[in-house]
């Protein structure tokens, strides 16, 4: 083991030979770090870089060939289907974000402040399960529930309400996207709300704040970063989702994800599909940057 | 006029009501799949056609479904083993060492789940087919690991946060080599998190369809098989496959939860009392 820094005043016996951070030889971090770095470089970073690269390639007689043409970009960015899909996807994702936040805030509040610690843990468990289990199947189940002869119409019919067309519109799409996003948003907000310093809330209550004032003046400001995180995560999930729009609206109108998959599957137009993919990534990066800005402004002002 | 007491009661009833509706909303799709998988009717509708195992048997007898199931098991196992190993290495590196570019390193490991799998799947397909690896089960594993290792790292890093920073240096001072310290001090402490990471990465892989769909070629995992069946004609076997998939996912996630202490913790002061105020 290499000796630590040679400072004479400390007798050898009392000098720690290993510091908390880097007591082990440099070979250890290198050996541990290399596999992770190599894996992410080959199977995550390289594909994304390659995605950007092939937006400039061209397809000749159904074969992808290295080139440097801007044709793919101009064709996609100036095309009407792309504009329609872009507008539709942005609008849908924004709607989901607003709905998810409006619903998740009171839900998380009830879970964090009304339930006892034990019941709250159970609720959190029940929410972790759907986040990691098949979204595709749940979308299929909503088709069964909301279909023309589905369960919802059967129940409505039993109480005398005529058949509604529930599937295939904005309503069913939001049902699908909220299935995906709402549990995540609620979880993020529950963790943030439970983590809020109780003494702050008590102080506000002792100073005579009503509950509504406590929520508006203490709770919401102190979990603002989490609200922004819940919002951006919801936007991200809804914006990139393929299954929800595919099955809940039958791809009418198509979203960017559907446009991307169709372009890939319909032949060898990978460069154009990549343009769609890269554009989506750019939009998501912009949304996250805006979110970061929105989440950090106030905090910086508070701590000079 | 509403008295404050009545208003409070009303507000609380609304809150609990909303919460119940929310959990019904979360549970309903899963319940629908399970209930109709035991329905004798060909198409899921009300009224229920009576209890039957016919679709479960039909699904199990379908060779394509069985093959997809076996593929999913291998992909899930491979992903779980590799993600846990890689996730541990990344978490330990972040916990123990200071090095140039550390923040970038942590960011790079954490970011893959934030990229929509539609885009990631397309990018991975383009890349692996260029290097001649597309259409293999091993490739699905490799691509799943890139996403699942983020979750593994997060879980293990959380556990390491509770680990005494000076325990390992103490072991070194007592003459343990860094590898021995890792093997006999750090790994045993992390065991529950490692087990949880294993099950969670398996669950992530078991449900992932876009990447597997893009890079798998003719090799279908179970969710890919379901996706392909959903896009074809209505198939009464779907509910039965779905019930099986849900059962496995739920088991994996519950096992993962069992080994983590992932619960929201209050920062300071007493817990709020549900019924006060």
TrEMBL record, chain A:
<feature type="transmembrane region" description="Helical">
    <location>
        <begin position="37"/>
        <end position="57"/>
    </location>
</feature>
<comment type="similarity">
    <text>Belongs to the binding-protein-dependent transport system permease family. CysTW subfamily.</text>
</comment>
<keyword id="KW-0812">Transmembrane</keyword>
<dbReference type="GO" id="GO:0005886">
    <property type="term" value="C:plasma membrane"/>
</dbReference>
<dbReference type="InterPro" id="IPR035906">
    <property type="entry name" value="MetI-like_sf"/>
</dbReference>
<keyword id="KW-0813">Transport</keyword>
<feature type="domain" description="ABC transmembrane type-1">
    <location>
        <begin position="86"/>
        <end position="291"/>
    </location>
</feature>
<dbReference type="InterPro" id="IPR000515">
    <property type="entry name" value="MetI-like"/>
</dbReference>
<keyword id="KW-1133">Transmembrane helix</keyword>
<feature type="transmembrane region" description="Helical">
    <location>
        <begin position="173"/>
        <end position="194"/>
    </location>
</feature>
<protein>
    <submittedName>
        <fullName>ABC transporter permease</fullName>
    </submittedName>
</protein>
<feature type="transmembrane region" description="Helical">
    <location>
        <begin position="92"/>
        <end position="113"/>
    </location>
</feature>
<keyword id="KW-0472">Membrane</keyword>
<feature type="transmembrane region" description="Helical">
    <location>
        <begin position="119"/>
        <end position="137"/>
    </location>
</feature>
<dbReference type="GO" id="GO:0055085">
    <property type="term" value="P:transmembrane transport"/>
</dbReference>
<feature type="transmembrane region" description="Helical">
    <location>
        <begin position="273"/>
        <end position="294"/>
    </location>
</feature>
<keyword id="KW-1003">Cell membrane</keyword>
<feature type="transmembrane region" description="Helical">
    <location>
        <begin position="214"/>
        <end position="239"/>
    </location>
</feature>
């Amino acid at each position: 083991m290499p000796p630590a820094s040679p400072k004479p005043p400390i007798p050898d016996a009392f000098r720690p030979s290993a510091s908390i951070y880097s007591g082990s030889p440099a070979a250890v971090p290198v050996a541990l770090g290399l596999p992770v770095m190599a894996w992410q470089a080959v199977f995550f970073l390289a594909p994304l870089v390659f995605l950007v690269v092939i937006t400039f390639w061209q397809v000749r007689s159904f074969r992808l060939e290295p080139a440097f043409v801007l044709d793919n970009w101009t064709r996609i960015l100036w095309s009407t289907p792309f504009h329609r899909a872009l507008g539709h996807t942005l609008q849908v994702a924004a709607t989901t974000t607003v709905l998810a936040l409006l619903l998740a805030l009171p839900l998380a509040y009830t879970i964090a402040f009304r339930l006892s610690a034990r019941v709250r843990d159970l609720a959190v468990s029940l929410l972790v399960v759907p986040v990691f289990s098949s979204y595709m199947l749940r979308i299929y189940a909503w088709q069964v529930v909301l279909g023309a002869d589905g369960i919802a119409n059967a129940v409505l019919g039993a109480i005398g309400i005529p058949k509604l067309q529930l599937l295939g519109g904005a309503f069913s799409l939001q049902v699908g996207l909220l299935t995906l996003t709402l549990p995540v948003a609620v979880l993020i907000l529950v963790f943030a709300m439970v983590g809020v310093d109780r003494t702050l809330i008590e102080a506000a209550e002792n100073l005579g704040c009503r509950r509504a004032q406590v929520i508006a003046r203490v709770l919401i400001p102190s979990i603002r970063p989490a609200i922004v995180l819940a919002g951006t995560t919801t936007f991200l999930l809804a914006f990139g989702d393929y299954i929800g729009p595919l099955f809940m609206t039958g791809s009418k109108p198509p979203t960017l994800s559907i446009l991307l998959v169709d372009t890939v599957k319909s032949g060898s137009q990978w460069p154009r599909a990549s343009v769609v993919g890269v554009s989506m990534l750019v939009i998501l990066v912009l949304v996250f940057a805006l979110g970061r800005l929105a989440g950090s402004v106030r905090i910086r002002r508070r701590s000079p | 006029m509403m008295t404050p007491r009545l208003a409070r009661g009303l507000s609380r009833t609304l809150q609990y009501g909303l919460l119940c509706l929310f959990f019904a909303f979360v549970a309903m799709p899963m319940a629908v799949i399970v209930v109709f998988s035991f329905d004798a009717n060909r198409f899921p509708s009300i009224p229920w056609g009576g209890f039957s195992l016919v679709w479960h048997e039909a699904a199990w007898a379908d060779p394509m479904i069985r093959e997809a199931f076996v593929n999913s098991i291998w992909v899930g196992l491979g992903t779980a083993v590799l993600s846990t190993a890689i996730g541990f290495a990344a978490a330990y590196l972040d916990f123990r060492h200071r090095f140039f570019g550390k923040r970038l390193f942590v960011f790079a490991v954490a970011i893959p789940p934030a990229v929509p799998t539609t885009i990631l799947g397309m990018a991975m397909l383009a890349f692996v087919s260029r290097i001649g690896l597309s259409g293999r089960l091993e490739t699905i594993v490799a691509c799943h690991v890139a996403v699942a290792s983020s979750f593994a790292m997060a879980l293990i890093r959380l556990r390491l946060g509770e680990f005494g920073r000076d325990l390992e240096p103490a072991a070194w001072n007592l003459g343990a080599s860094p590898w021995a310290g890792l093997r006999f001090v750090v790994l045993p402490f992390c065991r529950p998190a490692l087990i949880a990471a294993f099950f969670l990465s398996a669950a992530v892989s078991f449900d992932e369809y876009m990447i597997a769909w893009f890079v798998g070629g003719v090799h279908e995992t179970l969710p890919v098989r379901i996706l392909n069946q959903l896009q074809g004609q209505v198939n009464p076997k779907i509910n039965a496959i779905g019930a099986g998939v849900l059962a496995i996912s739920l088991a994996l996630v519950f096992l993962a939860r069992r080994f983590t202490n992932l619960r929201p913790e209050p920062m300071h002061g007493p817990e709020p009392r549900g019924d006060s105020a």
